[in-house]
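Exam prep: given the inputs below (a chain plus nicotinamide-adenine-dinucleotide), describe the expected output before reading on.
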Amino acid sequence: MSIAAPTELRMLIGGEWVESSSGQWTDVRSPATGQVVGRVPRGTAADVDRAVAAAREAFDDQRWRGQWLPMRCAVLERLASLIERDLDEIVALEVAQTGTAIKFRSANDIPFVPDNLRQMAASARHLDGKAAAEYSTDHTSMIRREPIGVAGQVAPWNYPFMMAVWKIGPALAAGNSVVLKPASTTPLTTLKLGALAVEAGLPPGVLNIVTGTGDEVGAAIAGHMDIDIVSLTGDSATGVKIQQLAANNLKRVHLELGGKAPFVVFADADLEAAARGAVAGGFINAGQDCTAATRIYVQRPAYETFLGLLKGFTEEIRIGDPADPSTDLGTLISGTQVARVQGFVERAVAAGARLVTGGARAQVPGLPDGAFFQPTVLADMTQDSECVQQEIFGPVLTVLPFDTEDEAIKLANDTRYGLAGSVWTKDIQVGMRAAKALDFGTVWINDHLPLSSDTPHGGFKQSGFGKDLSGYSFDEYTRIKHVMVELTGATRKGWHHQIWGDAPEG
Ligand code: NAD
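Solution:
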């Protein structure tokens, strides 16, 4: 894997590319080679203050939200086209900082992003709401949908570029100003996004990007008194901290958090399709996906057959150099994450789980320090074991049997998470009953993972609240204002009798 000399990138504040007030820099390393692939400023709370001030000024003087709507949409559409122009560069940068296979990045999330942005531009042009009408005698009412103000946004490392776009897309389309923080391990493509936004014609100060740690920059955003909405995609524990910090000025909170998706296979399902679906849906992005199929429940008559299929398809996966187009699975985000995943697997096996396949670090020739882990299937553990209940965020599937439909739903819903799940059956009534009973923000029937720009994505329970993608996401970045116009022109209104008694005759 060849890596170009590390790029030194600056933060974007008020339309300027700036260093941090700390004067410190952070190295970004490839999880495959351990080499430094970029260097970014280590931002501070003071940098967040600067960015918020720039965002506030841009909001208040209306340089963005006050623009003619077609012009604003044209900027977002231009940004989508610039992303398409530089797709290969963005993919290479993403592979370098995340270690994910290039095949995946170039076919999955990065090419999806331009359509996400175009959808947001379309949402801005198709506001929906109640019609203006006379809801009260003597008045006409209008419902206005307005931008909220300054949006503080905190993104994760698993899909750094796409998550950044899912954050800024709806916020900008609705006319807000943004202060965005990428994950500290994966800031490079977000800064590239900032450069493209400038090139697309976004006015200075409307999008600000501050790099740095969650504890410092993320917390400063969440607790900032001049931010009006904070949005996080990240771990549920981080969501709790952000919500607490956000309470100081009662800012709005939008949380896209962890997941532990159930994958329920009834005995009548197309078992090969389901097993392929579990492998593709479970090991996507090396399992570092909040919607990944992690908890597989299989109806008992099909259990052993299904495990055999799962083992076969899993063992076909080629782990290798992320930059090699024939590689199916690259690294995890870091060696620390590999050790964490390994700990889950070892403790599960020690507690009696059956190791169907995988279970150890993987060695890739030429990349001795790479954070590789074998795709792993564990079976026969208990429902309350930590590997069934906690988000591992690595390539590990757990498989358990069930007997009845009721039991399957109970097991699937027995989690603190509620992001996504799927059910596999040829019986439409079983599928639809399960879709209704499953307590998750997205339920697939006979598939697992596909998203579209036009459909909402977001969780229930401790997976958070608020939606990404679709018009629902756009709505999250707007506030509703009621404007009421008095129609009679009378000095003394009909309802004034509540203060002064009846109006004098004539
Ligand atoms: P994380 O919570 O560790 O970090 C997410 C972001 O929060 C980072 O930018 C981080 O720097 C920041 N952060 C960390 N501590 C903070 C604090 N105290 N205050 C403010 N900000 C803080 O999550 P991660 O490890 O980067 O990402 C993986 C997690 O994200 C998983 O739990 C995954 O399920 C979740 N995720 C959810 C979705 C979704 O749509 N629901 C999508 C992708 C990832």
